[in-house]
Structure to design on (127 residues):
């Protein structure tokens, strides 16, 4: 057996790279003691997302699917990265998701672009 700790260790979330597109995704615990990979820095109004795709952040940091219809008009939610991933084929669930997927595709391309060349050590004599 190992050393006993005063407080039990908890698995923490974090970020990982998507194996399909290479962009970061947030790893967040759910109420069901599982994990879900969410789109980082994205919190649309809940009424713009279909009920079965709304993840609401709880006060303890976990998330739960929020199927209340209609939701509070000011409630924010999170969506799974797999829905916003530009490298995975998905149906067009709602118009702004198509735009988000296109932007994520452009982000992947920008990450793949090589860095600009370093300036020369000596600049030419311009007179």
């Amino acid at each position: 057996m190992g050393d006993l700790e005063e407080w039990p260790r908890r698995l923490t979330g974090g970020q990982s790279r998507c194996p399909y597109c290479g962009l970061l995704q947030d790893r967040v615990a759910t109420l069901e003691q599982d994990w879900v990979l969410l789109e980082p820095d994205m919190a649309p109004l809940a009424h713009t997302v279909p009920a079965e795709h709304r993840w609401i952040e709880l006060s303890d940091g976990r998330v739960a699917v929020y199927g209340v219809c209609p939701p509070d008009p000011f409630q924010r939610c999170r969506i799974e990265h797999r829905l916003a991933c530009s490298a995975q084929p998905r149906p067009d669930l709602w118009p702004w998701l198509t735009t988000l997927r296109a932007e994520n595709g452009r982000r992947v391309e920008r990450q793949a672009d090589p860095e600009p060349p370093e300036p020369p050590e000596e600049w030419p004599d311009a007179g």
The mean pLDDT is 83.
